[in-house]
Amino acid sequence: ENNTGRGRSFGAFANYAVDTSLSLTGGYHFNNFGDAVLVTSGGATLMNLNKYHGLALGAKYTVPSLGPVVATNFHLGNFSNDAGPVDGPKVQTFTVGFKHPIDKFAVGAEAVYSRFTNFTKGKDVGMMLAGDYNASKRTKVYVRAGFINDIAGKPSAATLNFVGGPMPMLTSLGSVEVPFFANGGANTGATTRVVSLGLNHSF
Known about the structure:
- This protein has 1 helix and 9 strands.
- It is mainly β and about 200 residues long.
- A 9-stranded antiparallel sheet has the order 1-2-3-4-5-6-7-8-9, with helices on one face.
- A hairpin with an 8-residue loop joins strand 4 and strand 5.
- The chain is globular.
- The two termini are about 35 Å apart.
- The relative contact order is 0.12.
């Protein structure tokens, strides 16, 4: 951080347990980019980022006596540019998922919908299926299968010739990570599929 506040960031998170089954969460994040300039590989200016504001709301419910957990989250992200004719990207993301334990096993699924409300107007729709086997207290075998379908949208004054929904666009800018896709994000204007099998051991 310098004397202009560039690089300054802060956030807040709150969790409220309504009862033993239901909890509500909320979070806020701010980042001062300090007039960071994003350029294309050809040297053309893509954005003059100024600040970022993010707000997230969530809820988690555990079905009493049965054990399934249902969770949902909603996120708003607003990138602001320097003063000028081009607005920064605005993002809305909604997720919902569940996980159900069955003895040493657990199965689950999660769906996501994310979109630019301006910028390219691109959208992403994704789903992941999950299965876990708890071999011991510290060792788990897991399998995952899922996809993300990117609806690319169209170029705008803010994107030059670039298109894409939030996941491929913001991953390429380093603003978003998608762990299920090995932080590689999704392909623009296409469906990206992943199947994984792994072992998780806590030492």
